[in-house]
């Protein structure tokens, strides 16, 4: 069962859909004795046949340009999830907790056709150590350097996709918003921060607003977020009455999405634009910019949503 990965998700983009662990089938731990430079790292569910099959997939093309994935045969199928390094990088070390900027191209195992790619648009990001990312990918990148190129095969009873992944940068992000405090506004939920920065709220008593409210709580010193950028955030979410429904703080993870791409609800896409990196922002999202009249998980239909979002990074 797929976790509701960030309640603000409206429709996951391909990178999230493929890289989230629950979407590619189970992904158990890789062999802890394996060296990061070994040619293959398999999830526990991947068979020796899957490892051998991925070894027959070739990757051609220069670093920094969209490569060509050639399958040994079509249809090409895998039963589990498996990854291998194709070319080791020579840049900075990839470390746990860093935001890793990647380009990728994905092909359909049935015929080798390109399903999606980032080389003609903009890179996406993952966070090393995020438990929601396919473990085989985290494992294969552990101990590697910027510039590494890897193949990730994701197989199930329904379909197989092969992704070529190239790490183009790594970024250290702060653990919380940092900047100047902004005076609170009457009539909105009151936000209190724990010592580590985790927010909690005291619900407002009035009628929920019908328009999007974007209220900075901390003003960061970074550049303003623009549509099309991939932003990395920490967040917590509540209903208007103060009932909590999701938080990345509970797992101490970050969440990345591309602004304006439809990966998140409209209230997020609109609310973060123009806010500076390092800021913490209170978003009050009316149903029309959230989930509307659709019940979503523990969020009732017609709900006004309250988020506290720490904007930690933005990548063009």
From TrEMBL:
Against InterPro entries, the record matches this protein to: PPIase_dom_sf, PPIase_FKBP_dom
Protein name listed in UniProt: Peptidyl-prolyl cis-trans isomerase
EC number per UniProt: 5.2.1.8
Q: Which UniProt keywords apply?
A: Isomerase, Rotamase, Signal
Family note? Belongs to the FKBP-type PPIase family.
Describe the reaction catalysed, as an equation.
Answer: [protein]-peptidylproline (omega=180) = [protein]-peptidylproline (omega=0)
**Residues in domain PPIase FKBP-type?**
228-315
The residue range of the signal peptide is 1-29
Q: Name one GO cellular component term.
A: chromatin
PROSITE patterns in the record, alphabetically?
Answer: FKBP_PPIASE (PS50059), PROKAR_LIPOPROTEIN (PS51257)
One annotated GO molecular function is:
peptidyl-prolyl cis-trans isomerase activity
